[in-house]
């Protein structure tokens, strides 16, 4: 019954999230419970801690999302859940909750891809005519480019060969002594710094393909901040507030240059008239500015996910509506997949 909304669940990493989305794609509620405080002292997500926190939070988050939307099980048309990619133990909590609700309420189950959902966050803000498009998902776990003829069958056309962009922000923040999660704190420190103060590489940027690397850039920041073990005699400026700001600004500028440069390659390769951008790093202001400049220059329509739907959330799993409209429901014995589904 497509006059009734879908309840969507997302638990792939360290956010426990639920949302209720109507058939016209309006978001009736979107609740996100972040575990950042639990993982902060480890400087990254600890899978075992993440799964256990999901177990604690999943039902309160679901209840809050349903209360806020003013719906009960009888008012829903389907249960959607992110089944891939992500941490297996985390995914299993959301998937088990979704299967249970689908079985008990007699509703169909819909499996959603987390990365295509990140791109679908753009659809929630910009409307259905954003497809066909070229897509970039830039998050803590992924830096992927897609050719998207439609919302469901987006094809992966390139990705990082090592760290994801968000992971590089998180690692650079850690080595500069900035708080977790690193993206927002690097962005804040960078505001007081000079992006040209520290010369840093733009690895693989001038290659005509979509391969990209962030691990070498992160190492260059480490050497600039703490000294290079290969040339221990070279002087290193003290890591005071000004130097930290300059390193943050220079790293951010290099990362943005690389991402924007590869978006230009992806736009040329796909020939699509629109660029969709989603994922946590899409919240970065310097990246938004760089992408705006690129798309103005190439006369491409730029659709960046709204701020509240950049980091992980369940509203973006409203992608389930597209899958429902294709009649592609998931069986109650469906499994989770940790890796990319192409
Ligand atoms: O999409 P997301 O919530 O989780 C994954 O699917 O990975 O992305 C989280 C990532 C983290 O690495 C975080 O540091 C980064 O997004 N991030 C940012 C900003 N806000 C979040 N990176 C750069 N600038 C930001 N403002
Ligand atoms: Zn994500």
From TrEMBL:
Known catalytic reactions: L-threonylcarbamoyladenylate + adenosine(37) in tRNA = N(6)-L-threonylcarbamoyladenosine(37) in tRNA + AMP + H(+)
* CDD domains assigned: ASKHA_NBD_TsaD_bac
The EC number of this protein is 2.3.1.234
What broad class describes the main subcellular location of this protein?
A: cytoplasm
GO molecular function annotations of the record: tRNA N(6)-L-threonylcarbamoyladenine synthase activity
Superkingdom, taxonomy of origin: Bacteria
Protein name per UniProt: tRNA N6-adenosine threonylcarbamoyltransferase
**Which organism is this protein's natural source?**
Alienimonas chondri
């Amino acid at each position: 019954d497509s006059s009734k909304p879908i309840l969507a669940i997302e638990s792939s990493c360290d956010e426990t999230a639920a949302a209720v989305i109507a058939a016209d794609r309006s978001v009736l509620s979107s609740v996100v419970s972040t575990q950042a405080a639990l993982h902060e002292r480890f400087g990254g997500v600890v899978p075992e801690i993440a799964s256990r926190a999901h177990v604690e939070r999943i039902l309160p988050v679901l209840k809050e999302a349903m209360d806020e939307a003013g719906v009960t099980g009888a008012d829903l048309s389907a249960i959607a859940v992110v089944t891939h990619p992500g941490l297996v133990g985390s995914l299993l909590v959301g998937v088990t909750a979704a299967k249970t609700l689908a079985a008990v309420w007699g509703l169909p189950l819909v499996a959603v891809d987390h990365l295509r959902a990140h791109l679908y966050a753009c659809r929630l803000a910009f409307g259905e005519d954003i497809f066909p498009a070229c897509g970039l998902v830039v998050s803590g776990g992924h830096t992927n480019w897609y050719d998207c003829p439609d919302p469901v069958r987006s094809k992966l056309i390139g990705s990082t060969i090592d760290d994801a962009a968000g992971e590089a922000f998180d690692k650079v923040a850690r080595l500069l002594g900035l708080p977790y999660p690193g993206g927002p704190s690097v962005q804040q420190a960078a505001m007081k710094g000079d992006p040209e103060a520290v010369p840093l590489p733009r690895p693989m940027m001038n290659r005509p393909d979509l391969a990209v690397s962030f691990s070498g850039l992160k190492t260059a920041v480490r050497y600039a901040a703490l000294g290079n073990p290969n040339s221990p005699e070279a002087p290193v400026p003290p890591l005071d507030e000004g130097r930290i700001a300059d390193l943050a600004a220079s790293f951010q500028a290099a990362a943005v240059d690389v991402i924007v440069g590869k978006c230009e390659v992806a736009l040329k390769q796909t020939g699509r008239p629109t660029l969709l951008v989603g994922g946590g790093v899409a919240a970065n202001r310097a990246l938004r500015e760089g992408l705006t400049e690129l798309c103005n220059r190439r006369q491409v329509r730029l659709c960046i996910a709204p701020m509240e739907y950049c980091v992980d959330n369940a509203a973006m799993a409203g992608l389930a509506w597209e899958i429902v409209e294709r009649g592609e429901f998931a069986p109650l014995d469906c499994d989770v997949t940790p890796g990319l589904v192409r």
